[in-house]
């Protein structure tokens, strides 16, 4: 529209200055990715947010997400843009900041179905690669090391025992009047359901060459420190 050329989409071979952080919900990857990006002064890319924004677009359009042709048309027509400053990250849909809306229960309930559609993934992976750029990005998701950026210099698979993952998620959701035990139980059920749905549609695979890091007994600071060291010793980060 404006005559400003769209930034070209980097190819996988361009995406070397990348820390790929994959893992299940509650593994700590969002918190760690943001901190590593801040430490390296690299971009922070939350790929799950693109699937959530696409889901919000489908909800707003009032379509049935099982109608894949309609879903793809909505996703193709949506302007989804990630903000990648680790201190001020977020996501815009058609120019509107929807960083909060995409965390709501309607989106969370439907995002597995949307992210299961291969043509939708293809569209959103292009958005993700443009957000990564070529100068350094810490990227969190489920298929970063295997699909989005297979040439990433650093690949880490974060995991934690399920009870710890539930506790971390519940801690993020502390609500007045609801006991932490009740929240943990609710979150454990929700995580198990979503893990099961995600693994039917888009199985998590550990990439060859990825370092498997169990964070059950580690603090956020310790995990961040390990990942920053890996990036520096790979010779790609300042
Ligand atoms: O990390 P999250 O909860 O915001 O992810 C939202 C959904 O998107 C989740 O159900 C799995 C899916 N997802 C995906 O399929 N591939 C990614 N790279 C990131 C997220």
Q: Which terms would index this structure?
A:
238 residues; alpha/beta; 3-stranded antiparallel sheet; globular; binds 2'-deoxycytidine-5'-monophosphate
Walk me through the structure.
- With 238 residues, the protein is of the alpha/beta class.
- Helices cover 48% and strands 14% of the residues.
- The protein contains nine helices and eight strands.
- The chain has helices at residues 29-40, 47-61, 68-77, 105-115, 118-132, 144-148, 162-172, 180-201, 220-233, and strands spanning 18-22, 43-46, 80-83, 90-93, 96-97, 137-141, 154-159, 211-214.
- The radius of gyration is 17 Å and the shape is globular.
- It starts with 17 loop residues before the first strand and ends in a 5-residue tail after the last helix.
- The mean pLDDT is 91.
- Bound molecules: 2'-deoxycytidine-5'-monophosphate (DC).
Count of individual beta strands = 8
Please report which band the strand proportion falls in: under 5%, 5-15%, 15-25%, 25-35%, 35-45% or over 45%: 5-15%
Distance between the termini: 38 Å
Rg over CA atoms, rounded to whole Å, is 17 Å
Q: In percent, how helical is the residue content? A: 40-55%
Quick one: biggest sheet? 5 strands, parallel
Q: What is the average per-residue confidence, as pLDDT, rounded to a whole number?
A: 91
- H/E series: EHEHHEEEHHEHEHHEH
Hetero ligands? 2'-deoxycytidine-5'-monophosphate
Structural class: alpha/beta
In the predicted model, the low-confidence regions spanning at least 5 consecutive residues are: none
Assign an overall shape. Answer: globular
State the strand order across the main sheet.
Answer: 2-6-1-7-8
Helical run tally: 9
């Amino acid at each position: 529209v404006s005559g400003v050329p769209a930034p070209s989409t980097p190819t996988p071979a361009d995406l070397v200055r990348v820390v790929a952080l994959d893992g299940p919900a509650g593994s700590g990857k969002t918190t760690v990715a943001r901190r590593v990006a801040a430490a390296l002064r690299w971009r922070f890319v939350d790929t799950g947010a693109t699937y959530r924004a696409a889901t919000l677009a489908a909800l707003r359009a009032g379509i049935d997400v099982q109608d894949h042709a309609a879903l793809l048309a909505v996703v193709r027509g949506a302007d989804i843009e990630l903000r990648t400053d680790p201190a001020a990250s977020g996501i815009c849909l058609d120019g509107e900041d929807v960083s909060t809306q995409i965390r709501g229960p309607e989106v969370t309930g439907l995002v597995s179905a949307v992210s299961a559609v291969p043509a939708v993934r293809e569209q959103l992976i292009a958005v993700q690669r443009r957000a990564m750029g070529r100068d350094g990005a810490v990227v969190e998701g489920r298929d970063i090391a295997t699909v989005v950026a297979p040439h990433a210099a650093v690949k880490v698979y974060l995991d934690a025992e399920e009870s710890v993952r539930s506790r971390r998620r519940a801690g993020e959701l502390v609500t007045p009047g609801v006991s932490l035990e009740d929240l943990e139980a609710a979150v454990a059920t929700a995580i198990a359901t979503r893990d099961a749905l995600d693994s039917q549609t888009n199985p998590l695979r550990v990439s060859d060459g990825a370092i498997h890091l169990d964070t059950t007994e580690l603090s956020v600071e310790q995990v961040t420190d390990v990942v920053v060291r890996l990036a520096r010793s790979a010779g790609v980060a300042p």
